[in-house]
Amino acid sequence: MSVYLVVILLLCCAVIALSVGAMLMAAKRRTSINVWAGVMLFGAGAWSLLMLLFMLQTESAMAALYAKAYYLTAIIMAFGLYKFSTHYPISHKITDIERAASWLLPAIALAIVLMPHGVVVYAAVDHMMNTVKLDTIWYLFYTAIFAILISVAFVRLVSSYRQVRRTHNKKFAHQVLMMTYTLGVVVIAGAYFDIFLPMIGN
Q1: Which of 31-40, 109-118, 157-166, 175-184 has the lowest mean pLDDT?
Q2: How far is it, in rounded angstroms, from Cα 37 to Cα 35?
Q3: How does pLDDT run across 60-103, given as a tens digit for each residue?
Q4: Contacts of residue 112, Cβ cutoff 8 Å, sequence gap at least 6
Q5: Cβ of 170: how many Cβ atoms within 10 Å?
């Protein structure tokens, strides 16, 4: 894929996600679903924008800063998805242990990213082919937290869909299924670029 095409795609994703996220969070009727969907989209949009800024950066120090920032927003996106899944399409009862863990794990991931020589060790710049050196151990911790948040979210969404299919009309159940599929495609694509490719050195 052309680098310039990636730039255009990232810019489009950033504008769309940030715009929709801002509208949801600023809506007059602010429900938990709106708020957490807005957080999720805001995280995705910020991730796209920061990835673009990382690619365009010509100074290694600033490139490393942008790399840290897009790893932060990836966790925010995953956390937003997790919280969204606790309210959409139906509200779930969450135990005190899970509630505490749901805030503690993202906080640990954010700390790992922000600490000196944490997830990001340094960045190298080369005309939009910028690369980042990752610390393997801290990156595995980060990836595990990301995977836990995403996995729990989708398990809950699938469980919710099955419950809705039994107790509500087919049209609503179909909407829930399409939402789950759409989120799945977005998360898989994001995880491919942000998690898998860096694992193999890209």
Answers
A1: 175-184
A2: 6
A3: 999 999 999 989 999 998 999 999 889 888 888 889 999 999 99
A4: 118, 119, 138, 141, 142
A5: 9
